[in-house]
Amino acid sequence: MKLTSTAILLALATSAFAHDANVEMAKAANALLATLTPEQKAKATFPFESDAKGERVNWHFIPRERKGLPIKEMTEPQVALARALLKTGLSDDGYKKADVIQSLEAILREMEKDTTGKRDPLKYYVSIFGTPGAKVWAWRWEGHHQSFNYTSAGDAAPSMTPSFFGTNPGEVREGDRKGLRVLGLEEDLGRSLVKSLDDEQRKLAVMPGDAPKEIFNDPKRPNPTKPEGIPASKLNADQQAALVKIIKLYLFRCRTDVAAEEFAKIEKAGIGNVFFEWVGGFELGQPHYYRIQNTEFVLEYDNTQNNANHVHCIWRDFANDFGGDLLKRHASEAHGK
User: Fold this and answer.
1) Which of 144, 312, 145, 306 is nearest to 217 (CA)?
2) For residue range 5-34, what is the model confidence (pLDDT) as tens digits?
């Protein structure tokens, strides 16, 4: 097909200025939308509310009925396209973890003798807000123990938070998959760091009392937590490196090019200004919780439910969840023009 001069210029402009992540996400979203029936499209698509209210921010990680198009109601080719969209938002490691987390629903169904359909590996939903490829649009992949939220505005990298991963069981303890720990590294690295602290450091880092039953920065919390525990400035070089390894583990579950940009922001703000807090037991199998944060972002890990065999962990950006800062900057630039 011969391109017009206008189309060529548009293509060059897109490749020159649009962030690769925006281009890839829009291409994958439009490929999926092109295959949907009118009934499917009505479920999958929503208007984009620029005031950040409504369905776009109606997120959660519990097993509930959701708005959006579930992969359960897609054809096999459509499921492949939906998963191709998911791959544009996650790294290879993140995608593998997400895939296994979905498969754990079948294990839960057996464990709980569920006949209600509550535990279903196909009850994961795609929701698209606005028009993919437009200056402002967003999409979400969500189901039990997963909530991945992406917002594009202008040519900057998309926002990728809130980003939630969870597992139940945290460790599969019987059957063919015995020993599987999808989020085991998130747990092991946190425990290794707290165990490396000396007595004086633990006085700052380890909080008294029992580990909380849930992460604090969940959808119901109106205001973010504040940095508590020990600042990285009071950690030695090896401990700081261990802290950075945990931070990268969480961020780089999302697509790597944008995650690298997000980590660069944390470095610029100063690793020494990042706090680490631990609550609960130090040994495997004991209920425990940790939080890593500065004034801009937070990572949380909680493993207390089901006899400390049920993991929740999250990355949130206080200013840029659902593209908050991104949308403000885009609006400001558009107004200036």
Assistant:
1) 312
2) 433 333 434 444 579 999 999 999 999 999
pLDDT tens digits, 84-118 = 999 999 999 999 999 999 999 999 999 888 888 88
Within 10 Å of residue 319's Cβ, how many Cβ atoms?
A: 13
Q: Of 139, 99, 141, whose CA–CA distance to 121 is shortest?
A: 99
Predicted structure pTM score:
0.92
pLDDT tens readout for residues 195-242: 999 999 999 999 999 999 999 999 988 889 999 999 999 999 999 999
Retrieve residue 155's tokens. 């040519």
Between CA 287 and CA 211 the distance in angstroms is 6
pLDDT over 80 at 148, yes or no = yes
Q: What percent of the chain has pLDDT over 90?
A: 85
Residue 273: count other Cβ atoms within 10 Å of its Cβ: 15
- Give the CA diameter of the chain: 71
- Per residue in 69-103, is it b (16+ CB within 10 Å) or e — as a string? bbbeebeeebbebbbebbbbbbbeebbebbeebbe
Can you tell me the distance from the alpha carbon of 32 to that of 266, in angstroms, rounded to the nearest whole number?
34
pLDDT value for 100 = 97
Contacts of range 73-82, beta carbons closer than 8 Å, 24 or more positions apart:
73/40, 73/43, 74/40, 75/35, 77/35, 78/32, 78/35, 78/36, 78/40, 81/28, 81/31, 81/32, 81/35, 82/32, 82/126
300 alpha carbon, distance to own chain's centre = 12
